[in-house]
Amino acid sequence: MPKKSINNSILSIMKSFKYIVRVIILLIILTTQRNSALAQTSPASYVIKGIITDSGTHAPIPFVTIRIKDEKGTPVKAGISAENGSFVILVTEQMNYTVVVAAIGYAQKTLPANLSKNTAKSINLGTVSLKDQFTSLKEVAITADRPIIRQKADRIIYDLKADPESKANSVLGMMHKIPFITLDGQDNILLKGNSSFKVLINGKPSASVENNLNAILKSMPASTIEKIEVITTPPSKYDGDGLAGIINIITSKKLIDGYSGSLNVNESFPVGGPGIGGSFTAKSGKFGISGFAGASIFNNPQTSFTNSRVSLDANPTTLVQQGVRKSNNKTAYFGTEMSYEIDSLHLISGQLNINGGRSADHMGQSSELTGAIGGNQAYDLLNDNKATNYGLDAALNYQIGFKAVKNRLLTFSYQFSTNHGNRNGQVDLSNQVNFNTPDYTQTDKQKFNEHTLQVDFVTPVKQVNIEAGVKGILRDNNSNFGYNSFNNATGQFDADATLSNQYSNTQNVFSAYNSYQVNLKSWNINAGVRVEETVIRANFISTNTTADQNYFNVLPAVSVGKNLSDQTSVNFGFSERIRRPGINRLNPYVDRSNPNFEATGNPNLRPVLLNDIQAGYSSNKKLSLNIGLDYSFMNNLDLLVTSFDPTTQITRTNYQNTGKSSSLGSNISASYPISKAYSLSLNGNVMYLWLKGFSDGSIVHNDRLMYSFSLSNGFRFDKGWALNADLNVVSRNPTGLQGYSNGFVGTAFSVNKELIKSKLSFAARINNPFTSYRNNTAKTFGPDFNQLYTTRDYYRSVGISLNYNFGSLKDGISKSRRSIENNDMAN
C-alpha cells in the first residue's frame, strides 16, 4: 500500500477520533444536566454509602453484594457496588441497621449503620476492606467460599490458584476443565467447538502465543498462572477477529509493593520431558515489574502410523502407506511488564515478550499404490523435517489522567511485533517401482512484522462508562520457499523454479470503536460498535503477479447481565465477529513431504463473518452452577477442502471460502462440596453443527453432534494432602469440510502435598494408567475417494513437579488500564 494512502487513512481516522471525543463531551454535558434536574425532584430518603476495596491491593472491588438488615435481622434492602467499588443504598426508616458485605473469594464482613432519630439522614461507612478468604491449601476444602468459576456478563473466569490440580499440570492440561473449552485428540484447543479464537497474555497479544500456541501452553506450568478468562462476547474495544471469542491468560496479580514469585520444575515421561517455569512480581517506589518465563523439552518417542486411500472413479486405485515417526520439540519463553508512575496523573508502562522454539521430526515410510493404469507403484522414503521459530513483541503505553474526573483516562500506545520461522525438509527415496521422482529438499523462510498505533479515551458519566478509540495495524508478511531436486549427474540439489516462489503480503487494518457500559444496581449493560477497514495486497515476486483485497466491516457487540437475589445471575449477549486469514493460511508454500499428498495455503482467502447469540445462568451457592446456550451462523466460511486427482494420484488440501455453517450448543459447569474432604465438579459441552460446502463441484455435508465432558473428583485430606481423579470424554470432531477425527475417553490421577505451608509443594500425575497407546484416527471423504489416517500414539504418561512460592506483598501500584490488544487475525 503506498505511503501516501496510509498517511491519508491515518489522518482520516484521527479526524474520526476528534469527532468521537466531541460527541463524548457533549454527552457528558447533557447527562450531567439531566441528572442534576432529576436530583432536584427526588424525594428525601436516608442514605447508607461507602467504598469496597481489597485489603491487600487497596483496589476497588466491583459488583459486590451489600445487604441491609433491620434491628430484627430481617433483610430490607440490597444493592451492588459500582465498578469503582462505591455503593449508595436508600432506606426509608431511621433505625440501627446492620450492613452485610459479601463478595466471592473474600471473607464476609458485617458493619453497624446507626440511623436512629438522633442522627443525620445519611451515614458514610467509608472504606470497607475485604480480606481474601483463600490463604492456604487447607482452606480450599470450603469450595463454596471461593468458587473456582465466576461468571460476568461477557465472560467466564476460571481461578487456577483455587484449583489444587494446577500444581501438577500444564496450562494446556488444565484447559479441559474450563467452560466452553475442549481439547481434541491432538490436544488442539476448541472454543465452543471452533478452532478460531484469540489468545492473549495479560490482555495483550504475543507472537509466541499466535505462532506456537500448543508448544507454549504445554511448557507453561499451570501453577504460575493466576486465572484464565474466556471472553465469549468480546466488547467493542477488542479487535473483531476470533470467531468463537478470546482466551485471556493472566499470569500475575496487579503489581504490588515488595516482591513475590513462584518457581516450578517438572518432568514427564515417556511423552514429554523436563521443564521449568516461574513468575515474579516486585515494586519499589513508583517503579513496578512483573515477569514470567519457562523452558521445556517435549519428546514424542517413536510410534507407528497407517495411511490408506481408496479412489472411487472409473479406474479405482488403492494406496497404502505404513511407517514410523518420532519428534522432539524445545521451547523457551520470557515475558515482562513494567510501569512507572510519574505522578498521580501520568503513568508509563511497557511490555516485552520473547520466545523461541526448535523442532525435529523424523519419519520412515513405505508406500504402495495398486490398480494404477501405468502399473502398480511403490517406494520407500526417509523424511527429516527441522524447524525453528523466534518471536518478539514490545509495547509502550502512556496514560494521562484528569484531575476534574477521577476515572477519565487518555492512553497512547505503540507496539512492535516480529516473528521468524524456518522450515527445512529432506526426502530420500529408495526401492522405487514406476515412481521416478528424485530425492528432494524443501525450504520455507517466513517473516512477520507488525506495527500498531492506538489511542483510547475513557470517561465516566454518572453510572455510564464511555469508551472510544482509534487504531491502525500495519502488517508485513514474507515467505521465500524453494524446491530442490537431486541431480544424479552433478551430485547436487538443483532449484526447481516452477515449484518455488517468493511471496509477500501486506495487511493494514484501520479501526475505531465506541462503547458504553452502564451499571444500574443489579444490571450491567455493555453495548458498542466497532468499524474496521482492511486493505490487503499480495505480491508473488517470482511470477510478478499481485492480488488486492479491500473490505469494510461494522461489528456490533451487546452484553447484558442481571444479578438476581441469593448470588445468582443471568446474562445475554450478541456479537458479530470476523476472522481474517493469517500468513499460515495465505502462504502458497506447498508441503510435499509426502509425495502422494500435498497441502498449501490460499492467498485469495477472504474474511469470515460470524453472528453469535448467547445466554447464560450462574449460581454461586453451595452448588456452583454455570449454564450457557449459544447459537451462531456464518457464510463464506474458509475450510480445509480436499480433492483427489486421478491422473497424478495426488490428494491436495487447501483452504477455500466455500463453507456455510450454523451451530446450536450448550455448556454446563457445576461443582459441589459433598463433604469437607470430597468435592465433585463437571464441565460439559454439547453442540450440533450443520456444515456444508463445495468440493470438486459437488455439495458436501458434514453435519455432526459434538460433545465433551470432564468429571473431576477432588479429595482433601489432613496435613496438606490432596488427590484428584478425572474422567474425560470427547466425541468425534470435524477436521474440515470433508473430515472428522475419532472420539476418546481419558483418565487422569494426581496427588499433591504441601511440604511447607504456602511455600513449597510437591505434585505427581499419571494420565491414562490403564491404556499404554491410543489409535488416533482421522477420516477424510470426497465424491470420488475415501481416506483413513491412523497413528498409534502414546497415551499413558507420568509427571512430577515441585512448586516453590517466595516473597511478600503489601501495597498496590497502578497499571495502564488501556493497551494494545491485537486479536483480529487467525492462523
What's this entry about, in short?
7% of the residues lie in helices and 64% in strands. The chain has 827 residues and is mostly beta strands. The strands form 5 sheets. It has a 22-stranded antiparallel beta barrel. The protein has a 5-stranded mixed sheet with strand order 8-9-13-14-12, with no helix packed on it. A 4-stranded antiparallel sheet has the order 3-2-5-6, with no helix packed on it.
Topology:
Blueprint: H1 3-41, E1 46-54, E2 65-69, E3 75-80, E4 86-91, E5 96-102, E6 109-114, E7 122-130, E8 149-151, E9 155-159, H2 171-174, E10 181-183, E11 189-191, E12 198-201, H3 207-211, H4 213-219, E13 227-231, E14 246-250, E15 256-269, E16 274-284, E17 287-311, E18 318-343, E19 346-370, E20 377-401, E21 409-433, E22 440-461, E23 464-487, E24 492-495, E25 501-520, E26 523-540, E27 545-564, E28 568-581, H5 583-586, E29 590-594, E30 597-600, E31 608-620, E32 624-645, E33 650-673, E34 678-695, E35 698-701, E36 704-716, E37 721-730, E38 733-736, E39 739-741, E40 744-756, E41 760-767, E42 773-782, E43 785-794, E44 797-812, E45 825-826
Parallel strand pairs: 1-7, 12-14, 28-45, 30-33
Antiparallel strand pairs: 1-4, 2-3, 2-5, 5-6, 8-9, 9-13, 10-11, 13-14, 15-16, 15-44, 16-17, 17-18, 17-43, 18-19, 19-20, 20-21, 21-22, 22-23, 23-24, 23-25, 25-26, 26-27, 27-28, 28-31, 29-30, 31-32, 32-33, 33-34, 34-35, 34-36, 36-37, 37-40, 38-39, 39-42, 40-41, 41-44, 42-43
